[in-house]
Design brief:
Order of helices and strands of chain A: HHEEHHHHHHHHHHHHHHHHHHH
Radius of gyration of chain B: 22 Å
Strand order of the largest sheet of chain A: 1-2
Radius of gyration of chain A: 21 Å
Largest sheet of chain B: none
Strand content of chain A: under 5%
Number of strands of chain A: 2
Helix content of chain A: over 70%
Structural class of chain A: mainly alpha
Largest sheet of chain A: 2 strands, antiparallel
Helix content of chain B: over 70%
Oligomer: heterodimer
Number of strands of chain B: 0
Number of helices of chain A: 21
Order of helices and strands of chain B: HHHHHHHHHHHHHHHHHHH
Chain lengths: 487, 479
């Protein structure tokens, strides 16, 4: 039996235990903690020399149409499983006490965790699709009950947007499946890629566009991004951490697994389109982010903007840029989780996140300020953090494509835009940091009873930052893993 | 074993129960229901015995192929579920029927579905227009009685009358269509329809198409395809809830079996088949659009389920229009089984909530999670499955249907269906929203469930999830 199965089923067991009356917080902490340790162990245990798919397990579901439940992982999946373990554990750590049905909240978080673990370890497109879709209803329920701001509108928008987008992905997957000759048909993406590379199947390039639109929406690719900011700013902090930190990466993961290997021709044909969209993501959304006047919206938009850089890594399509993109996925997942966790902690204390009503909080909340400073640096991509290593690899890789393969002019423009994007993100993140934590204290009498971060908020965020620093200083730890996928 | 014994046993069971009810009026009515369920379960087990084939000479109107056997089981399970639901419905019946003694009329409420079950079992085996017509009428007569069963409730009477008039009208269409087809081909056999049509001269195609059209109208009434769906919301709302569930599941499934048997024959004749399947595709499109768009505006739970039932007819019609694909018939069978599980779960929860909150509007579901977490979870699973989200039976159902439609190149239909699913996510989640986001109103108290109901609800949740992960047994039994 594959150890990956435990990653998926442990959260479900925990849910049943909670329904039977086990203490919700403790059970969830233990489960996600165990999952985190297990994924860490799997990364360590993975045979780098051998590479390829390991921990394989196959169960036949509908043999007649080649539908199996196949589990397996390579370096890329393991990196994302590690990300899932880390972020879900910290998300449950920072979950505050709540008055309305806390058990339901923990159950929802566990369902999302299980779905993510399943999505990143399934080799079958059907289950890949199914597991990522599990998150839809829990997120709907969580934003509606525990969200803030205009939460009902945000919940509807996110659910309908992502529901429609996942249907487009489903259509793409079915079309891809049917494009192979009858006797070869399989839902396994390894088989699909092999068939396409050996020219046994000839998937039409419109299928690539379906997949790009579907997965692109989940990654909030311009112009399908408008669900993301409202969702992330309204969602409770743990939900936003999981959604922006990990679930969003699933869209990129899907593109890397399905679109790139199966449609080498179409990817080249439509690279122009994708480049223009990602430039919009970086520059247009970058300026929109600068215009935000609230901390939660700034962070939410920043997560949309950073996706542009990762897309650049995918379009450049060489070993360097792809592994850089994977590294940045990991780094961005952690850094955005840090920021949303702190954002949630601040919201609980100040009840407002508008820049005009905040200021000078560093004097009152020194710990929060310190951590937010680190989070800002990580998000901007300062050397020493994983994001820096990822971005630099993407830039090098993309430039290599320009020089070696006579890449198009638009690719050069995209690289320059992405470099400029680093400056843009420095502007809005530093401004956010300044307006919330520095300067004179605004309305000092309001904050007389404010308390700094408690241990259960401080420790998990520190854990995330420590991982960011370690993998930032020794990016080889992750790169060795990730490279096995792009060999 | 001779398959004709199956229906015979069910009829005898019904008659025996009626006699017991008549001669022992003091007997506890619940016992009748349990005996009925036990008897039906016994017949269900009998269907797994090896069947001797029915010779063409002795019964040319009857077939016992995989489809017939599958749907016989389907009908028995539906009836058992209806009887189980009826147990929780006893207080409403007692209020709805003015009688000298308490419990009058309760017994018959348990027995009538058994007769309907027998006629449905004949219906799915019918390969002759005559048996088709007779068994369809048998079922409808039982439904006339059951729908207007609560004679103190004007809504129930209204529903019964509407169903009676419209159903009688479509019966006219059906018998008229049958006589046209008989007039042209000289046969009442469905199984040999294609053979007879091939021999016909080209000039008789027009009357044949006319007859086909009339029969399609009657069948579309049964499955509630647009534009023959007008009766549905009112009848659903007025009928006793267990009967609504029975009507929504069994009657629809029967309609689809007949449609399949009829269209399979026409499919064999390219010239005629093309026209008929163009009509089916069109019907699927308009049914999908109408059902989903109309459902979005509903505030009453029963009406929401009624319009959603129209929408599901649309999805199944997609598969009917793609009948050329190898997986089309199993896809329809699987979808109906999924529909059986999720709809009955939704109706059971609806029935309990109506009984404890005094209404079947969606706002009556507010805060259900705090009143009974199990009921809220059950309704959520039912809604997820109806909406077609992964790892529920409904998802696999839609997945197979989308796949066969893709295979047959129905791209326009697929686009409409995609939009419909999104609309579906919206209106099903309206219920989820009411249950979780909103607080219960102060007058509402926590709901306690009987042990039997708890087991039934948990079992249905399990069935929906298991079928959502492992659909093969159902799929394979229709190959």
């Amino acid at each position: 039996m594959s150890p990956l199965l435990f990653l998926i089923f442990l959260p479900f067991v925990a849910i049943i235990l909670i329904l039977c009356g086990a203490p919700a917080r403790l059970t969830s902490l233990l489960t996600t903690g165990l999952n985190f340790l297990l994924s860490l162990f799997l990364c360590y245990h993975y045979n780098l020399v051998l590479g390829g798919w390991q921990y394989l397990q196959e169960t036949k579901i509908v043999p007649k149409i080649g539908l199996n439940f196949t589990l397996g992982a390579d370096g890329l999946s393991l990196t994302l499983l590690l990300l899932t373990g880390l972020v879900s554990f910290t998300a449950i750590c920072v979950t505050p006490k709540m008055e309305r049905s806390p058990n339901l909240f923990y159950c929802c978080l566990l369902i999302i965790t299980a779905g993510l673990a399943g999505a990143f370890s399934s080799l079958d497109t059907f289950f890949l699709y199914g597991f990522h879709e599990i998150a839809l209803i829990p997120v709907f329920i969580m934003i509606g009950i525990w969200g803030s701001g205009d939460r009902q509108a945000a919940a509807w928008k996110a659910t309908l947007y992502l529901g429609a987008d996942s249907l487009i992905v489903l259509l793409g997957i079915i079309a891809l499946y049917l494009s192979a000759p009858t006797s070869f048909r399989s839902f396994d993406f390894r088989v699909m890629a092999e068939l396409s590379q050996n020219e046994i199947s000839h998937p039409a390039s419109w299928i690539y566009l379906l997949l790009l639109a579907g997965f692109g929406t989940l990654v909030s690719l311009f112009p399908f991004h408008s669900w993301a900011p409202s969702t992330y700013s309204s969602a409770p902090a743990p939900t936003a951490m999981l959604h922006a930190g990990v679930l969003k990466k699933f869209g990129l993961y899907g593109l890397i697994r399905l679109a790139l290997p199966i449609f080498p021709v179409a990817v080249g044909k439509f690279s122009m389109l994708l480049l223009i969209l990602l430039i919009c993501n970086i520059i247009y959304i970058g300026y929109v982010t600068i215009a935000q006047r609230r901390l939660d919206w700034t962070i939410a938009y920043s997560s949309v903007m950073h996706m542009g850089t990762i897309f650049l890594g995918l379009v450049a399509f060489n070993m360097l840029s792809l592994s850089g993109a994977a590294l940045l996925m990991f780094g961005h997942g952690l850094s955005i989780a840090v920021l949303f966790a702190l954002c949630g902690a601040l919201r609980a204390r100040t009840e407002t996140l508008t820049y005009d009503e905040l200021g000078g909080l560093a004097q009152l909340l020194p710990k929060a300020s310190l951590l937010f400073g680190f989070g800002t640096m990580a998000s901007v991509g300062l050397p020493g953090f994983t994001n820096f290593a990822g971005e630099i690899l993407i830039f090098f890789g993309a430039t290599a494509t320009v020089i070696i393969n006579q890449g198009s002019k638009i690719l050069i423009i995209a690289i320059i835009a992405a470099l400029w994007g680093v400056v843009i993100s420095a502007i809005y993140m530093l401004r956010a940091y300044r307006s919330v934590f520095f300067g004179p204290i605004f309305q000092a009498e309001r904050w007389t009873n404010i308390k700094d971060l408690s241990l259960k908020e401080f420790a998990p965020v520190t854990l995330l930052l420590v991982v960011l620093l370690i993998t930032g200083i020794f990016p080889q730890l992750i790169l060795n893993l990730v490279n096995t996928a792009f060999r | 074993m001779n398959p004709l014994f199956l229906e015979l046993t069910v009829v005898l069971l019904g008659i025996a129960l009626l006699m017991v009810e008549a001669f022992f009026p003091k007997l506890c009515k619940k016992r009748l229901a349990f005996v009925g369920m036990g008897g039906l379960f016994f017949v269900l087990l009998l269907t797994w015995l090896p069947m001797s084939s029915v010779s063409i000479e002795s019964a040319p109107f009857y077939t016992i192929d995989n489809v017939a056997l599958f749907f016989k089981r389907f009908m028995i399970v539906t009836t058992i579920l209806t009887l189980l639901m009826s147990l929780d419905y006893i207080p409403v019946i007692e209020r709805g029927i003015p009688g000298e003694r308490l419990g009058a009329g309760v017994g018959e409420f348990f027995i009538l579905p058994i007769f309907a079950c027998a006629s449905l079992m004949w219906l799915v085996s019918a390969v002759s227009f005559i048996l088709l017509f007779v068994s369809l009428e048998c079922m409808t007569v039982v439904l006339y009685i059951s729908i207007s069963y609560l004679r103190k409730d004007p809504k129930s009477l209204e529903a019964g009358t509407k169903y009676l008039i419209l159903s009688a009208l479509t019966t006219g269409f059906l018998i008229y269509g049958i006589s046209w087809i008989f007039g042209v081909t000289g046969t009442t056999s469905i199984a040999h329809l294609a053979e007879s049509i091939v021999l016909l001269p080209a000039s008789s195609m027009t009357p044949l198409l006319f007859g086909t059209g009339l029969i399609l109208v009657a069948l579309c009434f049964k499955i509630a395809a647009f534009p023959f769906q007008f009766w549905l919301p009112d009848v659903y709302q007025g009928a006793p809830t267990p009967i609504t569930a029975f009507l929504s599941i069994a009657s629809k499934a029967a309609g689809f079996v007949l449609l399949l048997r009829f269209l399979e024959q026409l499919y064999l004749i390219p010239t005629l088949g093309k026209k008929v399947f163009a009509i089916t595709t069109l019907l699927a499109i308009v049914t999908l659009l109408f059902g989903n768009l109309a459902a979005m505006a509903q505030t009453n739970m029963k009406r929401l389920l009624a319009y959603s039932s129209i929408a599901h007819t649309g999805y199944i019609l997609m598969a009917v229009a793609s009948i050329g694909a190898a997986l089309a018939v199993p896809a329809i069978g699987f979808y109906l089984v999924a529909y059986l599980a999720m709809t009955s779960l939704a109706f059971i929860v609806l029935m309990i909530v109506t009984e404890t909150s005094g209404g079947d509007e969606i706002y009556c579901f507010q805060g259900l999670h705090e009143r009974s977490p199990l009921l809220a979870a059950a309704m959520t699973v039912a809604m997820i499955s109806l909406a077609g989200l992964p790892f529920s039976a409904g998802f696999f159902g839609k997945f197979f249907i989308f796949q066969v439609a893709f295979q047959q190149g129905h791209y326009g239909l697929l686009a409409v269906a995609t939009l419909s699913v999104v609309a579906g996510i919206y209106y099903y989640l309206k219920v989820v929203k009411a249950m979780y986001w909103k607080q219960p109103s102060e007058t509402c108290t926590p709901i306690t469930l009987s042990k039997l109901t708890t087991v039934l609800i948990s079992a249905l949740i399990a069935v929906i999830i298991i079928l959502g992960i492992y659909p093969t047994p159902i799929l394979m039994s229709l190959q």
